[in-house]
Design a protein that fits this description.
heterodimer; A: about 450 residues; alpha/beta; FAD/NAD(P)-binding domain; 2 domains; five-stranded parallel beta sheet; four-stranded parallel beta sheet; 23 strands; disordered N terminus; B: about 110 residues; mainly alpha; Cytochrome Bc1 Complex, Chain D, domain 2; 6 helices; globular; disordered C terminus
Chain lengths: ~450, ~110
């Protein structure tokens, strides 16, 4: 894809794609509709389930070229809504290095063998065929904010009027950035996994867990917030504890939290650790990990030395490389500050959404989707010489397994505060389930299916 | 056939695009209502949860208000509904009452 000033050519290409021709992604297997915890079933009907017919786009009079970097929950949503709301005059190019997206949501169920990684994968085929999004599989290596173009690893460039960076997070092992001593080397990181980006590490951690002996010890370390998916680590601890309870009698799960207490769903996870998984899971707040010896599988911590069979250390996170390299990670060198009406960063024309954005909203897929819609709306207004919606509202909802067949939920609505200029939780809406239940577990599958359909098709 | 209609649509918007003037504001309530899309489908057309289309403004508004005042217990929507003001609920209700069934076309 060369410098694409020729809008006619781009539109023509979009037209071909809208008609179902020439789609790069069409060669890939259509995988993953979600919704089923029988992983292999969900892959088999995915192709038939996906319509390739183009959606009629509105004629809005808005024109412009938008490049979206990153095809996760936020990036896919912003690309979709730029076209669905902005119409065919808005040329949207989605750059993502991977052939498909692997959902972090539900990936803890891979650890218990209840889902497969392939059941969590979503291609970009529907975004291309339905909305005429131009999909480029590649990696952005630099951003030129003055010339308004990005350069890809392939050497080609993409010109933009507005750029969206939605690269997710990278994990930091540098000691100066909160990394744990002992995990600096690739060899150590290959033994002490994070599995906090669904994919090969998730499968590898599953294999480590199944290799544990009866009476073995699984240690999970949680970084100081903010990290991706606030309830996620506690959910993982619960699922691993439940699996070990059933399959490796006498095994223990130690949860070593850098935070002074459970950071999300305090009621549900306190009940989980004190009652449901009592005798198996042990929760410790405010723990400092002094060092980890990946060869010996030992931890030196503020509560003593621990010998483990498996250590699952979730490192601190920071904004994706493309955000940091563009000099946008101005909050503690980790996150990008943004105008919370438009998600425009401190550099004009460059928006940052999803987990890389530094706001008080959780870093999670459901809200990432909504940030994509708020950002799309604001960009379309900007392209049409209008000001952003002055009162955006975003929302977060998620279900968390407490056992292999029960779940809780968490929800919050966020509204713009014109005094602080920040999105803040509406207190009365920030709630969790009264109790775990099988019904919640079943609704979790429906929620996941709906969310992924909304984001990727 | 699909190719022709898409081509006509693209052509029309290209013509409209040349002016560079201020465009029309998006429909009232659309961005707000998009909060519901994650679970209730794009434009509320239904997904694995209920469709929000095919009801009157009053019907949708009444349901939202009822959910807001009831004790949430284990019902996620009763908790979620507490995040919206009365005016926001009216806007959300109006938006969905204007959506057509089985359409993902935005308006």
């Amino acid at each position: 894809m060369d410098n694409s000033n020729d809008r006619n050519q781009q539109v023509r290409r979009a037209l071909l794609k809208a008609a179902g021709f020439g789609s790069l992604g069409a060669l890939l297997p259509a995988i993953g509709c979600g919704g089923s915890d029988k992983a292999d079933e969900s892959t088999s009907f995915a192709l038939g389930h996906s319509s390739t017919s183009a959606t009629a786009l509105p004629a809005t009079g808005i024109t412009g070229r938008v490049v979206v970097v990153g095809g996760g929950m936020a990036g896919a949503a912003v690309a979709k809504y730029l076209r669905l709301w902005g119409g065919s005059g808005v040329a949207v190019t989605l750059v993502e290095r991977s052939a498909s997206y692997t959902s972090n949501i539900m990936s803890n169920l891979v650890l218990t063998g209840q889902r497969s990684i392939s059941s969590l994968q979503y291609t970009y085929n529907n975004l291309v065929s339905r909305y005429g999004i131009n999909r480029v599989q590649g990696e952005v290596v630099s951003v030129d904010p003055v010339g308004r173009k990005v350069r890809l690893a392939s050497g080609s460039t993409l010109a933009y009027d507005r750029l969206v960076l939605a690269p997710g997070v990278v994990f930091t092992y540098e000691l100066g950035l909160g990394g744990i001593p002992g995990l600096e080397t690739a060899a150590a990181q290959a033994r002490v996994l994070h599995a906090w980006q669904a994919g090969p590490q998730t499968t590898a951690l599953r294999n480590q867990i199944t290799a544990m002996p009866n009476g073995g010890v699984f240690v999970l370390t949680i970084p100081a917030k903010p990290y991706r998916c606030p309830p996620g680590p506690y959910e993982r601890a619960c699922l691993v504890a439940d699996w070990l309870k059933k399959n490796r009698p006498g095994a223990k799960v130690f949860i070593l939290d850098a935070n002074p207490g459970i950071t999300a769903e305090v009621h549900s996870f306190t009940d989980a650790f004190m009652n449901v998984h009592a005798g198996v899971a042990e929760y410790h707040p405010s723990v400092v990990i002094n060092s980890i010896d990946a060869s010996a599988m030992t931890l030196n911590t503020s509560i003593g030395n621990i010998q483990a069979n498996v250590i699952n250390a979730i490192p601190p996170h920071r904004a994706g490389k493309v955000v940091t390299d563009a000099g946008l990670a101005d909050i503690g060198g980790r996150w990008a500050s943004v105008n919370q009406l438009s998600y425009e960063s401190k550099v004009a024309g460059i928006h940052v959404i999803g987990d890389s954005a530094g706001t008080d909203q959780p870093k999670a897929g459901h809200i990432g989707n909504q940030l994509g819609k708020v950002c799309a709306d604001a960009m379309l207004r900007a392209l049409g010489r209008l000001t952003p919606d002055p009162a955006p509202v975003t929302n977060s909802a998620c279900y968390s397994p407490i056992t292999m067949d029960t779940a809780s939920w968490l929800t919050a609505v966020f509204a713009y505060n014109p005094t602080t200029l920040k999105m803040a939780a509406v207190a009365d809406s920030f709630r969790e389930a009264e109790s775990r239940s099988g019904e919640n577990f079943s609704k979790m599958n429906k929620w996941f299916s709906a969310l992924m359909t909304e984001t990727f098709s | 056939m699909r190719l022709l209609s898409t081509a006509a649509l693209l052509g029309a918007s290209l013509l409209a695009a040349t002016a560079g003037a201020q465009t029309a504001a998006p429909p009232t309530g659309r961005l707000l209502a998009s909060n519901c899309f994650q679970c209730h489908g794009t434009n509320g057309a239904g997904s694995s949860f209920d469709s929000l289309i095919g009801q009157s403004v009053d019907e949708i508004y009444k349901k939202l208000k009822e959910m807001q005042v009831e004790s949430p217990g284990n019902n996620i929507m009763k908790a979620h509904a507490r995040g919206y003001t009365d005016e926001q609920m009216r806007q959300i209700s109006l938006y969905f009452s204007q959506q057509r069934s089985s359409s993902t076309t935005s308006r």
